[in-house]
Give the backbone structure.
Amino acid sequence: MFDHATDWLELVVRWLHIVTGVTWIGTSFYFNWLNNHVRPPETPEEGVAGDLWSVHGGAFYRVVKYRVAPEKLPKVLHWFKWEAYVTWISGFSLLALVYWLNAETFMVDNSVRVIAPWQAVAVGAGTLLIGWTVYHLLCKSPLGKHALPFGIVVFLLLSGVAFGLTQVIGARAAYIHVGALIGTIMAANVFFVIIPNQKIMVDAMVRGEEPDASLGQAGAQRSLHNNYFTLPVLFIMVSNHYPMTYGFEWNWAILIGISLAGALTRHWFNVRGKGEKNVWVLPVAAMLMLGLAFVTKPKTYADHRPVQFSEVRQVIERHCVRCHSATPTQDGFTAPPQGVMFDTREQIVQNAGRINTQVVVTKVMPLMDQEHITEEERDLIGAWFYQGALPD
Ligand code: HEC
């Protein structure tokens, strides 16, 4: 009953997270696009930098961009901050609900490092807290003024986090925590810098004073960083569906490579929006993705001796059935995970493709590898699958 309730809670929180995340990134993309497409108005207007006409849903809209601010502020000014906050709050809840509360199952991986569940959670929480603090201090340091060197340093630091986490906790948890760190940086940028600075500037304008331009620059710096983070963070959030990424031997390098492809793609949109034609950026990102697909290709078993079904069944009985059964014996499991059961010959044969993916391609299963599965046992499954997954 408790499991059922937490499943529903998780569903609702995840749903909320996706909806607010879509809204946040959608708004951010829209304003980027707007900035790139406003043009000086046909009849010049005092203080107006540009305007833009659009049609949507049968109505016509005209958006006006001011050079600094309008003479007189309107009564109602929209801020666009709640979508960022709620995305973070729901994301953080999900991280705690799915990973931290189930640290023993989803964070600790004995084949990576033997640690206690609380240590895994401490590593995860510490990553978010220390990661944001280091990034924030770097932004304020002299390095923060130089966009490209700063970008390179942050990229290297995040790569270090990806590498470090994959040496301590399970690969999926490591991936998600890199994503959670980037998401935390993005939301904290909005909460601690972008919105407060805008508030101070607006207040100054209301008092009739000249707003402090450095506040606007600090906000613009963080907005730019958030812009480059969007595509990498979105990949990481769906990465759990792609075992060939986090399940690969050098999973941290794959994470870095795909993130780089995402940031490059974002860069291409940014420079294109400014009217520059940097044609090389997109093909480089595409080549990078092709290269990663090639590097992660599974091994073949063309030279392997014929494998009997009974050998495969033994491996599965030793390493899998305590969870994947109609009546699991593993502590904490009341039903077979994802409904996947290996009690009968038919169930094993039917699931051959998924078993191969989990055990051979990505090595994600067996979860909590208590019996220490060997490479030979994995190869038995791989070769059996390669030879047609026959039931003898
Ligand atoms: C300690 C419990 C446990 C053990 C042991 C275990 N699994 Fe799993 N397995 C899980 C859990 C939990 C999930 C669900 C994972 C998720 O929701 O992301 C799962 C999911 C799966 C899936 C479905 C994944 C998919 O997306 O297709 C397959 C297939 C699978 N396991 C195969 C195996 C095989 C084969 C073994 C033995 C070599 C094994 N498991 C051992 C707990 C276990």
